[in-house]
Amino acid sequence: MLKAIADVLRSIGGAIATVVTLPFRAVARLFGGASSSAHGHH
Which InterPro entries does the entry mention (predicted)? Predict the structure, then answer.
């Protein structure tokens, strides 16, 4: 019972983490591309 609940929570947490981090990755990629010339790393 507890293991099933833990598996569900883990899958939900993973989905939420993916949805939450996607926009941050996009923003980080935008800022990274904009500041790549300034910082000198890809």
Answer: LPFR_strepto (IPR049849)
CA angle 29, 30, 32 (to 5 degrees): 60
Alpha carbon of residue 39 to chain centroid: 23
Distance CA 36, CA 9 (A): 38
Cα Rg, the chain, nearest whole Å: 17
- 21, 42, 19, 17: which is closest to 32 by C-alpha? 42
Q: b or e along 18-35 (b: 16 or more beta carbons within 10 Å of the residue's beta carbon)? A: eeeeeeeeeeeeeeeeee
Q: Model-level pTM?
A: 0.51
